[in-house]
Amino acid sequence: MTTTITGAGGVSQVQDGSIGTADFAANAITAAKLPAGSVLQVVHNNFNTHTTSSSGTYADTGLQMSITPTSSSSKILVLVSQCGVRKEGGDAYMYLKLVRNSTDLVQISITSAYTGSTALNSGSESTCFLDSPNTTSSVGYKTQFFRGNVGNVHVQVNGVKSTITLMEIAG
Q1: Could you give the 3-state DSSP secondary structure of residue 54?
Q2: 54-59 contacts: CB < 8 A, separation 24 or more?
Q3: How many angstroms separate the CA atoms of 94 and 147, rounded?
Q4: Which is higher by pLDDT, 1 or 154?
């Protein structure tokens, strides 16, 4: 839709919050000018190396990504898809959590791949989490897992791809 403005006075500036042609000049639209809730940046990573845990201690799954927020008031929306989850041997099950730097954020699963028997089981786990890191320094996110009970638990079995996406949201 085209808007035509006529008359002797003209319009020197649009006051209704819309973006005009001049705003598209280099560096005219900055994160500071965008309203709360705007997506400021998106970073993404995938990882497909088969990783195994046979212990009851948390270990990295290999899935990780970092982002440097542009403002300390920004939120980070974390989207995780941990794929190729499998248990084998014994009556194992997997604990899976999301970590920011060294801080636990959310327990994604505590009984992943559980069958109640020694039967093999495969699947995937996913989560979305809105974080408030309150910093403009680089922030790292990763998943960690460990085996509950006896047997082994795996992620990225047979090279299946797990993904993590980080979205900075204006605060």
Answers
A1: coil
A2: 54/147, 54/151, 54/152, 54/153, 55/146, 55/147, 56/146, 56/147, 56/148, 57/146, 58/95, 58/97, 58/144, 58/145, 58/146, 59/144, 59/145, 59/146
A3: 5
A4: 154
Residue of 70, 125, 69, 67 whose CA lies nearest to 93: 125
Q: How far is CA 98 from CA 20, 59, 95, 138, in A?
A: 41, 12, 11, 17
The pTM of the full predicted model, rounded to 2 decimals, is 0.80
pLDDT digits (tens, 9 = 90+) for 46-92: 999 999 998 889 999 999 999 999 999 999 999 999 998 887 777 77
Q: How far is CA 149 from CA 54, 114, 116, 117, in A?
A: 10, 10, 11, 11
Which of 66-70, 111-115, 146-150 reaches the highest mean pLDDT? Answer: 66-70
CB 30 within 8 A of CB 170: no
